Amino acid sequence: MGHSLCICSRGTVTIDNKRYYFIQKLGEGGFSYVDLVEGAHDGHFYALKRILCHDREGRKEAQHEMEMHQLISHPNVLSLNAFTFVNKGNKCEAWLLLPFVKKGSLWSELEKLRDKDSFMSESRILHIFEGICAGLQAIHEKNYAHRDLKPTNVLLDEDDKPVLMDLGSMNPARIEVKDSREAMTIQDWAAQRCTISYRAPELFRMESPCIIDEKTDIWSLGCVLYAMMMLQGPFDLIFQKGDSVALAVQNNISLPKSCRYSQGLQDLLTSIMVANPQERPDIAWVHNRVQNLLSNEPFQDSTRV
């Protein structure tokens, strides 16, 4: 965690006695902003994420996100270079200094392909998906779950290596739900923190008593795979039309008969996207299956797109 942060001049910040120059804004969310900064000491670019903490609970959530970054050390999970809180009057901001991944998100890559009326080759899908599985497996091995896996939370470096980001929704993999009150509390949390079109069926209508586990991530993983194959998530259009995603996720996923991808990849998708979490495979099985499919290259559509 950073020991100090000050605004030394316009466009310059200091974290842990190292200066960083503001370059440009990269994006913003509901309670956070991300800026591109350059380290004066090394000339490297970084992403500086500023989280607005409106109260003690907000500060606690930012602290949790920092701790999740420190918990997982894996090349397919975004690392944390520095972290600190800065007080601005009666307000507080959490600052996370993160590696800058120039290529952007997996979602932005899918949008580019869609705009060009193109597609992602099977070999490229498997290469990226294998890295996503590796990162997710590292999280699950720490007995945590990501809870908000989606294409916008996957960054791609220049070599198409995927990096999982936005760890603020991570929490213990197994959550025991003892009664209907606890079930409603978790459903409300999921509605706020787990993107609706990538949210697992069990997070919409929760039985009690029950146990929610890391299989929620496996469902989201399947939605990400579908998005790479079809250039949009399986429930994106349903959400955009205002129809019920909660109802749609109860049905088995289907691909068009004209699907360009191998039966092996289609079978992998349908084995992951199973409404009943007890029938879904774990991440080790999925990762192993992807590696087996990769070993069978080349594919008919192996031209890199």
Automatic annotation (TrEMBL):
Keyword Chloroplast: no
Keyword Signal in annotation: no
An MF annotation (GO) of this entry: ATP binding
Keyword set, alphabetical order: ATP-binding, Kinase, Nucleotide-binding, Serine/threonine-protein kinase, Transferase
InterPro entries noted in UniProt: Kinase-like_dom_sf, Prot_kinase_dom, Ser/Thr-specific_kinases, Ser/Thr_kinase_AS
Protein's recorded name: non-specific serine/threonine protein kinase
GO CC terms, sorted: Golgi apparatus
Domain Protein kinase: 20-294
EC number: 2.7.11.1
Gene3D superfamilies: Phosphorylase Kinase, domain 1 (3.30.200.20), Transferase(Phosphotransferase) domain 1 (1.10.510.10)
SMART domains recorded: S_TKc
Chemical reaction(s) catalysed: L-seryl-[protein] + ATP = O-phospho-L-seryl-[protein] + ADP + H(+); L-threonyl-[protein] + ATP = O-phospho-L-threonyl-[protein] + ADP + H(+)
